[in-house]
Specification:
alpha/beta, Purple Acid Phosphatase, chain A, domain 2, 6-stranded mixed beta sheet, about 20% strand, binds fe (ii) ion
């Protein structure tokens, strides 16, 4: 009888271990299963010459030991095959040393990852306007590193929006794309919008969705594109939400949010942080179609 009970306990114990290992294994495999999300948005205020505008967004590449050249090259090849007018990156292109738990065991050469990700992003075809803003990991290692990343992005044809805006003109109309520095560092939203005319159609790029708490009713922002959350990366019900480094994870974990003034979209990102795995939050390339 005792032997039978023990073997039943052992069966459950080994079964749970096997299930746990299978979960880890599938999370490791799913970290690279990129999903393309297509989002159609209609804005009565969008100038007619911009109807049909296509924006491709990626975020949180986190170039690092865990996120390598082969995977990022595949993402770039996917983007190259997509119809688009604008490509935007909403921060955390690098993984900064702020998250250094594993660094005691891993190769410690950030410049290698910086040059790798620049090399890969440089393979994006010309023809689309290429824009980027920085995330907390891009700015966390100091201004010299951030400047190096800025210079390299400029070299491969990206405009980095650092608390500034850019006017796009099609026909007789203009829209504005504004981009902030990271909210935990040098974000300045009033400065970012300073040159945007009061009634202009405006798209805001900002890494952290908590930027929405800084948007006042006086600011006319039609679409805000963010990242930062990784969609939870490993979605464990009732737990992951508590660990999210944002104010309102229920609202801004991932996807499209309707605001009083427009829409916010939170991209689940491309790379991974801390653990090379994803569960219930696949990596994402987003294709926006505006009318
Ligand atoms: Fe990130």
């Amino acid at each position: 009888m005792l032997g039978k009970q023990l073997s039943r306990r052992a069966f459950i114990r080994y079964g749970l271990r096997a299930a746990f290992l299978m979960l880890i294994g599938s999370g490791y495999g799913l970290r690279h299963s990129v999903k393309t999300e297509t989002i159609d948005l209609h804005f009565p205020t969008l100038p007619s010459s911009f109807h049909g505008l296509r924006i491709v967004q990626i975020s949180d590449l986190h170039a690092s030991f865990w996120v390598n050249r082969a995977y990022l090259s595949r993402v770039v090849a996917q983007i190259n095959a997509m119809a688009k007018d604008i490509v935007v990156i909403t921060g955390d292109i690098l993984t900064g040393s702020v998250n250094s738990f594993f660094k005691r065991w891993l190769p410690d050469d950030d410049d290698t990852y910086l040059s790798m990700v620049i090399d890969v992003l440089g393979q994006l075809h010309n023809g689309a306007t290429k824009l980027a803003v920085f995330g907390n990991h891009d700015q966390g290692d100091g201004s010299a590193k951030t400047q190096q990343l800025t210079d390299e992005l400029h070299r491969i044809g990206f405009k980095v929006l650092r608390n500034e805006s850019l006017a796009l003109t099609y026909g007789n109309s203009q829209i504005y794309i504004a981009g902030t520095d990271d909210l935990w560092y040098s974000c300045n939203l009033p400065k970012t919008l300073a040159n945007v005319p009061e009634k202009a159609f405006t798209i805001l790029l900002s890494h952290n969705p908590d930027i929405t708490t800084e948007i006042s009713k006086k600011m006319k922002i039609d679409l805000t594109l963010c990242g930062h959350t990784h969609g939870g990366q490993v979605m464990i019900p009732f737990i992951t939400g508590y660990l999210m480094p944002i104010d309102n994870p229920c609202r801004y974990m991932a996807g499209l949010v309707r605001e009083d003034y427009g829409y916010t979209y939170v991209n689940r990102g491309i790379g991974t942080l801390v653990f090379p795995m994803r569960l219930g939050a696949s990596p994402e390339i987003t294709s926006f179609h505006l009318t």
